Every structure is written in C-alpha cells, then in structure tokens.
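Throughout our pipeline, every protein is held as a single compact record rather than as scattered files. This encoding replaces a full spatial description with a residue-level series of whole-number codes. The remainder of this section carries one protein's record, kept here as part of the documentation.
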Amino acid sequence: MNAGVVNAVEKQFIRIENITIENFKNVKKGTISLKNRRKNYRASILGLYGQNGSGKTALIDAVQLLRFALCSQPIPEKYAEYINVEERTSTLKFQFILQQEDYCCNLWYQFSMEKVIDESPYHDNKLENSKTKYKVKIFDEVLSYGYTSNEKKIRKGPLIDTSADGIFLPKSKYQELLGNSTEDVTEMLVTKRLVQEQSRTFIFSREMMRRFRENCQVKLYLDILEGLHRFGNRELFIIDTEHEGLINMNALPLAFKYKDDTSESFGNLLLPLNIPASIPEKAMEIVRKIIANMNIVLQELVPGLTIDIIDLGPVVEKDGSLGRMIQLMSLKNNKAIPFRYESEGIKKIVSILQLLIVVYNNPSITVAVDELDAGIFEYLLGELLHIISEKGKGQLIFTSHNLRPLETLDKGFVAFTTTNPENRYIRFTNVKGTNNLRDFYYRDIVLGEQNEQVYCPTNNYEIALAFREAGETFVP
C-alpha cells in the first residue's frame, strides 16, 4: 500500500490548461488546450482520439512525467527511451490556473530531458558483456507566473529559471525566495547537481522546498510552489497501461482519494486477487470507507453489484508491524464470490471508480486515464462520461478507441491526433452544433476535410494480399 493521510487544507483550485510536447516519443511537436472554448463548464474533460501510434499515450506519459517532477520523484529509466530517436533532448511545457479566494494566477512550468549514460556505482557499464544503461537527466526547469487580483495585474514573468549557470535566476526573485544569505550557495549548487544525477527535478526537490519554506519572503511565491507541489502529490492521478496489465495479472490496483471533515487520504492499493492480501492495520478503516463510498455508485452502474472485504484476521508484517489479512469479495443477488471471478470490465471500473467520484465532486483534481474504454461496455462509457462532463467539477483526461463518447460529450471536450508529427494534436473545425461528431470523424477519415490528416489510409486489397503471402509460408 502506498498512501498518505493529511489534515484538511485550505481551499485552492489548480487545473492544467495547456500542454506542449516537443520531441517526445513519436511527437515532434504537439500543443493541446484542455479548455472547452465552446461553452463554460465546471468540469474540464479532454477525450483524445486517433489512429494507433499517433501520440495518444504520449500525452498521458507527459502528464505522468509532470507528476514525477512536481513530487521530485526519480524519473524511471524507461523514459530515457521516450526521447524522440532523432533528437538529443525532449521538452515538456504545462500551463496551469491557480485560483485562491482573493486572487488568480496563471502558471507555466517546463523542463527538458536528456538521455545520459547511468554511471552510478550500482551499474558498471565497463564490465564485459554489460549492457549500457541509460537514465533521464532533467535540466532547464523554468517556472513562470502571471497574476491578477482586484488591485493589480502582473504579466507573465519568470519566478525560477534554472537554465543559467549558478542556482537560478532572476536575481530579484532569488533574494525574495531564499533571502540574502550566501552561506548555503555551495550546498545548493551541490543539490542542483545531485538531483540531476538522481533524475529528479531541482525546483520541487525536498531540499529546495525546505529552503523555500524557511526563507521565502513573499506569500504569493510560496503559495505557487506549495500549490503545485501539493497538486502533484495529492491531486494528480495517472492510470496508464501498466495499471491495465496488473489487472490482467490478477491484481487490482486501487487508486483513491478520500476526504472527510478532518483529514484526507490518498494513494494506491495493490490487492492480489488470486490469494488473500495483507494491508496495514491502520489502513483497514480507510479501505472500508472507500469501499462503502464506491458501492453507492457501483450498484447504479452495474445494478445489484457491490463489493466488500472479508477480514481474515491479524498478521505480522516483515517489518514487525501489524496488518490485517483480507479477501476482496463481489456481492450480487445476495451471493458472495471472490472478486477475481468478475469480468475484466468490472475490475477496470472498480479500480478507477473512486477517482471518478472525486473528479465529479472536487474541482482541484486531475485524473488522466490511458485507454479508458478497455473492457467497459460502450453505452455505459458514453453515459458515464456525459454525466461527469455535465455535472462534474474536476478534470479528466482520457484516451479511447471507443467512439461512443463522441456522441455524448460536448464537442469542445474532444481532440484528435494527426498523422503529422510536427502538429500532433488538433481540434476539429467547421463542426456545427447539429453534427454528430462520430459521423463527422468517420467522414473526415475518408475525405480529409481538416487542415491536417487524421488517418493514414490503408489499402484493403494490399492487406488481403499480404495475408495471403504470409499464409503461403505455412503451406507444406
């Protein structure tokens, strides 16, 4: 179990408004706005559609990297291979809105990544037959802001720019963030180099956040840093294809955020389905609350279905702490069966349901889901997304191959990938209010009426010929 419990925090609204991807996977350049410019909704929904291999998952991966950055978690080594093969570096840019009760900030955060050889002492690339190991180096972080309140307005300007030599610029912001003391300059330079070696970000590192909290002289600046740090740690959730793989391997990854009058809990649970699983004893009450909360909605999505846990008794964990052995069960028509016997679609719904509940109710929550439609009945998927978009408050980013949501979502909530790696993401133009977006998309695949091509045509005759030629290989 990976979870946290914190005291309830002051109301603050943070949402991603724009993402730009450069030289990342198969995206040379792609910019996508997450705002619905057609109509003012409380919820922010972005459904991304397109051909296989056209950059949909790249968007979810970019949001995942944002979470790593804001949390200052080490970037997993696999992302070193995500930098476009034709380029040396990749850059990700994000724009946010931060809303407090008395002011509003526009925030911009960007960083670049480079694939470098891992020269850590734990991996010797010089050993015979040793495969060269690579890691990600994060550099050129820039955090900028623009400010609007009843009294004044400040245009976009850098708050922290690490691209220059030294610790960071501009000098005026450095003094306001860290004071006039020069005693820790050498130590901070060492920190800057250390976090790069560890594939972490500098601005949001534990070391620098501690210094900002101790020395920052401007409340606005600390609000910005704390707000983004909290957003990454507690309010940004990513459900990727690895999540789906765990379900296929008989494990249920349960991402959650639960809040009551005094505190909030957030994190991830991984529950093996083929055998009973142990969880920390202190987490037992949280798990029961989460399941009870989910059941309110689950029995409406799948009539008559609820889930529960059976407490099989206390256990002692390897570290000596106390835990409880539990078994996840499915209850339908007053009959209980182990949850592992449920369909893959039911498992998928349960694994993300708690987050969808939070998206519906909380404006400062962002959930990004890759292949949301996997295993979910298309009619239910369309209705579920329609309800969240019309009545919800939070932000949901998803990719899908199922076109049913194109008929239920407002057209301003949908974007498409193109076949042009230099301009990967577009919104359709010339779409009338009476158009069925699903039919419109099919028509554009055939006729190509947009400025960018959204589908690389295939030739049915050539495909059939290829099948026949491949089959001849197996003829005796």
About this structure: Confidence is low (pLDDT under 50) at residues 3-10. The chain has twelve helices and 19 strands. The radius of gyration is 24 Å. The longest strand covers residues 134-149.
